[in-house]
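Final report, Chapter 2: Outcomes

The project's central promise was a pipeline that accepts a single protein chain and returns its three-dimensional structure in a standardized token representation, suitable for archiving and comparison. That pipeline is now operational. To close this chapter, we reproduce one record exactly as it appears in the project archive, with the input sequence first and the structure output second.
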Amino acid sequence: MRTLANKSDRRDLLVRLAKAQPTSSRQWGKMSPHQMICHLHDSFQAATGEKTVSAAGNLLQRTVVKWIGLYAPLPWPRGLPTRPEMDQFVGGTPPEEFKNDLERLRVMIERFSREPRDFDWHSHPSFGELTTRDWLRWGYLHVDHHLRQFGL
């Protein structure tokens, strides 16, 4: 089970992330590679409490869907909806300079994975309260999902 808690999994993910280019070809969805970088950063900021995000979960999402999404051996499906605050076409952080935004995301992933943390976990908008184990698994899966979106 891949997770940001595992140094080699994290390193592999960061190597893939470093291959992202503004011209990387999208396999599905609407975001550009640069928008994807900002979307991921926004999502990590929601987990750390640095960006406010509206809740959307119900009991089914906070239990069954959470377990399937985090621990079933399946890739996340394409086209899952995102919260407006993370949506690059609604309220997400606009891209600025690709290399700087990519580096900012890399630093955030390292910070997110570090023990001890310098932040407290906040609720996931759909899954509710997550443990450290859950958050580190989510972080890996979310980045992996979007890297696959661009063939990376």
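Archive annotation: The domain at 7-149 is CATH 1.20.120 (Four Helix Bundle (Hemerythrin (Met), subunit A)).
This record, like all others produced under the grant, will remain available to the consortium after the project formally closes.
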